[in-house]
Amino acid sequence: MQSVKSNLLAAIRHVLSPLCRIAIRNGIGSNDLSAALQSALVHSARGELAADLNREPSEEEVGLMTGMTAQQVRGIRGLETTTFPAANYSWAASEVLAGWHSDVLYLGPYGLVLDIPIVPEDPVPGTETRSFESLVRKYAGPGVSSEIILDALVKSGAVERLGHGIVRCIDRTYIAERLSPENIQVFAEAVHNVIGTMAVNLKRTTRGAGLLQRVVFADYGLSEEDLKKFNLFIRKTGEKFIDEVDTWFAKHSNKERQGSIKTGVGIYHYVENDADREEYLKSMQVQHGEGTNVAR
What we know:
The chain is mainly alpha-helical. Among the domains are: 82 residues, Orthogonal Bundle (Arc Repressor Mutant, subunit A), CATH 1.10.10; 112 residues, no CATH class. A hairpin with a 2-residue loop joins strand 2 and strand 3. Helix 2 packs across helix 3, helix 3 crosses helix 4 and helix 5 crosses helix 6. The radius of gyration is 26 Å and the shape is extended.
């Protein structure tokens, strides 16, 4: 029988997929994500050990639980309150735009930036040929993907594809997709609370224990038209339920009746990402053996 560890790793990768897409769209790469994951591991291990030992655990004890050395734990402690820097491609995109607006090879009469081909046309060995690929190589470095930079610049509105392999610069400033601190906080707390509920319920051994967790879904899917109808329906009924819960809280959680337990109820409407689910089911089939069905 496959180990719990392998099953959990497959599940964690599935959970991380939408989070990674958000990270990629906002310029967060492998190094930053690894640092964040290590920081979360150390923080969680410290909390687990403190609850078991009734004292602050040592760096050696935290390292033993997380598979790190005491020196690694010591280095990570400061990351828990650190703002992680944006990935290098944001800097690279800005450098490419700056070069496009200052390099004489890419400027026409009166200093206007030229439309350029994405790939070099009739390249001559040993000479610089005007192209977007050459621009990226010159100002961002040979190890930076010109496709990633171009995609980022097009999405930001700084560059426009004209067709036939030609691109035009329409803005000299690159502004990556950014989320407000308030929206990020709401997002983080919602995801954290949902996963926290699931974590509690993974350990329950009897029906009725743990926290309320109910999911209903369309057994045979919905058409685009019916999805719009369902969205309106669930908004109306969901709002009514939330209002009832809010009224209940108002009676039991106020200045006269206070408690230490922070709790609540969240409602979310999901639409499955087929590619993510197929990848997850494939990983489970590999672990359990071909032909094994994984329950929805």
